[in-house]
Amino acid sequence: MKRIAMLLVSLLMCVVAGVVFAQETKPYKEGHVLQVSFIKIKPGQFNNYMKYLDGPYKANMEAMKKAGLITGYAVYRSQPRTPQDADVILTIAFPNMAALDRTDEADAISTKVLGPMDSRDKASMDRESMRELLGSQLTRELILQ
Q1: Could you say which DSSP state residue 28 is in?
Q2: Of 3, 37, 49, 127, which one is least surrounded by beta carbons within 10 A?
Q3: What are phi and psi of 55, to 5 degrees?
Q4: 86 with 42: CB under 8 angstroms?
Q5: Where is 141: in which H helix or E strand?
Q6: Is 121 a domain residue?
Q7: Pairwise pLDDT comparison (74 vs 110), residue with the higher score
């Protein structure tokens, strides 16, 4: 009898825990993913870097957006707090984390827009004369319910 009572109590506790767990929902849902890059422009190179962003960078971002790989991008000017801080911030919005895995599609688009990998590597080295990439991070939007 004691065993049956213990079994019933255990079963009842599992049912109650299952109901409580099933009713527990997050107060948010996961939104888009934002890649944020922090750039320090070298002295006298601001307009040159802006020309690059308005040219090849913009063309590549628009092609990625048209293909559905990204949902948007933006360029921000920032007031650095210290000499080591970024003065330009670039953002790229992805619909979700899975979009970051579509590298083959992104490479194909970049090759079409910007040319083969070796010329893109050279252009990247040329940009280093205009700016320094301080770092980047991924953030995910949390949409409150």
Answers
A1: E
A2: 3
A3: -105, -100
A4: no
A5: strand 131-144
A6: yes
A7: 74
pLDDT per position as a tens digit, 17-33: 555 555 679 999 999 99
pLDDT band at 68 (very low <50, low <70, confident <90, very high): very high
Q: What are phi and psi of 144, to 5 degrees?
A: -70, 140
Say what the pTM is: 0.77
Q: Which 3 state secondary structure label does DSSP give 117?
A: helix
CATH, residue 133: 3.30.70.100
For the chain, the maximum distance between any two Cα atoms, rounded to a whole number of angstroms, is 87
Task: List the one residue out of 43, 108, 24 whose CA is nearest residue 69.
Answer: 108
Residues paired with 39 in a beta bridge: 88, 133
SS (H, E, C) 94-138: ECCHHHHHCHHHHHHHHHHHHCCHHHHHHHHHHHCCCEEEEEEEE
Q: Judge whether 99 lies within some domain.
A: yes
Half-sphere exposure of 58 (CA within 13 A, CB side): 8
Dump the DSSP string for 39-61: EEEPTT-HHHHHHHIIIIIHHHH
Measured CA to CA, the distance from residue 125 to residue 145 in angstroms comes to: 45
Note whether 133 and 39 are within 8 A (CB): yes
What is the residue range of 58's domain?
28-144
- CA dist 2 and 76 (Å) reads 70
